[in-house]
Amino acid sequence: MCGIIGYVGTRDVVPVLIGGLRKLEYRGYDSAGVAVVNGNGVEVVRAEGKLANLEAKLADKPLHGTFGMGHTRWATHGKPNENNAHPHRDCTGTVVVIHNGIIENFLPLKHQLQKTGHEFKTETDTEVVAHLIEEKMKSGMKFEPAVKKTLKELEGHYALVMINANEPGTIIAAKQGPPLVVGLGEGENIIASDVAPLLAYTRNIIYLEDGEYIIANDKKVDVFTADDKPVHREPKKILWDAVMAEKEGYRHYMLKEIHEQSRAVRDTFNGRMFEESAEIFFNDLQFTPKEWAKIRKIHIVACGTSWHAGLVGKFLLEEASRLPVEVDYGSEYRYRNPIVDDGTLLIGVTQSGETADTIAGMQEAKAKGAKLVTICNVIGAAATRMSEGVIYTNAGPEIGVASTKAFTTQLTAFYLLSLYIKQLRGLDKDDIRYAMHELSVIPHKIETLLKKQEKHIEQLAHKYQRAQDFLFLGRGVHYPIALEGALKLKEISYIHAEGYPAGEMKHGPIALIDENLPVVAIATHTPVYDKVVSNLQEVKARDGKLIVICDEGDEEMKKFADDVIEIPWTVEPLQPILSVIPTQLLAYYIALRRGADVDQPRNLAKSVTVE
Ligand code: AGP
After folding, report:
1. φ and ψ of 210, to 5 deg
2. CB within 8 A of 71, min separation 6: which ones?
3. Residue 301: CB within 6 Å of ligand 1?
4. Domains of the chain, residue spans
5. Cβ contact 591:598 at 8 Å
6. Ligand 1 midpoint to CA 578 (Å)
7. 3-242: which CATH architecture?
């Protein structure tokens, strides 16, 4: 995710842009930049790192004008440095673009433009847009038609803001995927990734829909569809306060991030899997089949929720590679003198990329000759700098301390990696293509699940909020989800909860079962479904309260459980991405009812950078 903002009006534009970017920093903060069009043409200032670095540069080199744009970056293509920071320009320096999202077909477009003499200065996908517009203007097109034509050539997800220094006062912005909202002011108009930066100037907001673009100046904003038909859209009156706006109306970042999972999963596979050719491509991870053949075992090292993702990863990677996969807590691995050599692949899984125990475990393996790969959500974080390969989860910044979208995007990364390994091993392309298709529809299934089940889960939270203990049960790929569900509940509601393999319950925990103990079980259709049902009968026989997460339409389960939460069907390796969501929502709504501080639970930190 990135934060973008554009302004045209009568105010001194830089304070408007910087104030807006500060409200968008939660969307990304590895670099930032502004462009201002004034009597000297277009002036651009960019800086690596936090927004404060850009502000320091602007203090040294003040820019003035009443028309411009700003961007705060969460890098996807190209390292987070000043050169790759937005805004980006064409060869003439007069067409200026900022972007949030991924232009999936940027590479072929870039190669085509380079053949016609365009010189690229950055590693980003975004820069292609500026040169595409320039190419059309070189053939005599005006700025507006050049932009319209360019938009039709782009594939992928993007929120774009584009200006031309030779036509000051006109802003064009387009939406396909990531959000874009327009604030209608008096003698001024402002465009941004979300509402927060607009509320200081207006409460009259237009939300753009996918495929739409606007052409705006200080007097008017015209909205068009992808096929250039004008759209009349009544502005909405937004009554949020600024803090609510940063959460886009959600009460907590955690709830917002649960709802972002559809977009986050899509952004994690977009631009990496190509169904046509059944190919997987990672920007920052390349193995040759020969290099892969040297790998004889895989170790996964992580902590907390990321360790649960590693447990799911074990199933996916063992099935794909037929190599032994061990999963360890970082704090254990670093001291157990693990058996590692140059045939070991060590995968560090870490949202922050700064977790001390995970990094120490990775260092231990590296010192013994292992090849390191990291699955991480923060570009350039410590764990990524020590690895030969990285798979970035494009979840965007995760503000809530309890990890949600980072987890489901880690599962997505493991799924992509398992397909990549199958590709390296030359396995059947039709199987790989089918697996890709199932992943491609997961974002829609997440949306459906949230729409159909959230209210019901909120009611279940009301019903079970006073329980003193919970037991979570799962088998196979869902055993890690039982652990994750228990962790989510305990870390934000402070209720003791335990995750257990369903088949293992009879070896002890069954002594806990009585009418006061809610048992949350995942019983979707996997090869061990019948076994799970027998375990759940053992719970019912002892009056345990049974909440079952099952496939949509599982009528048997509805007769048998006290409560069911139905989730859409998908293939077994992808089921954890869906089955974890009810446990996230249950934890959230129980914590809410118990008045806990959901986004910042007591005693916790977002990233544990100490041992
Ligand atoms: C997740 O809900 C927890 N807050 C915590 O367990 C977290 O997953 C763990 O500290 C690892 O963090 P990392 O992914 O940034 O390495």
Report:
1. -55, 135
2. 2, 3, 4, 5, 21, 32, 33, 34, 85, 86, 87, 98, 99
3. no
4. 3-242, 252-440, 450-593
5. yes
6. 20
7. 4-Layer Sandwich (3.60)
Q: Which residues of 76-234 form beta strands (DSSP E)?
A: 88-89, 95-103, 156-164, 171-176, 181-184, 189-192, 204-207, 213-216, 221-224, 230-231
Catalytic residues: 2, 606
- Cβ atoms of 386 and 364 within 8 Å: the answer is no
Q: What is the CATH number of domain 450-593?
A: 3.40.50.10490
Instruction: Please work out whether the CB of residue 403 comes within 6 Å of at least one atom of ligand 1.
Output: yes
Q: Is 355 in the pocket of ligand 1 (CB under 6 A)?
A: yes
Q: Whose CA is nearest to atom 5 of ligand 1?
A: 304
Q: Per the structure block, which two tokens stand in for 179?
A: 């959000």
CATH fold match for the domains 3-242 and 450-593? no
Q: Which fold, 252-440?
A: Rossmann fold (3.40.50)
Question: For ligand 1, what atom is nearest to the CA of residue 406?
Answer: 14
Question: Whose CA is closest to atom 16 on ligand 1?
Answer: 350
Asked whether 361 lines ligand 1 (CB < 6 A), one says no
For residue 608, the ligand 1 atom closest to its alpha carbon is: 10
CA atoms within 13 A of residue 314's CA, in its CB half-sphere:
19
Q: In order along the chain (611 residues), what is the average pLDDT of each group of 10 residues?
A: 93 97 82 93 93 95 95 81 93 96 92 96 95 96 96 94 94 92 96 90 92 96 96 85 74 95 94 91 91 97 98 98 98 96 98 92 97 90 91 88 96 98 95 97 98 98 97 98 98 97 94 95 96 94 95 93 98 98 98 92 74 70
Tokens representing residue 332 in the block:
């254990």
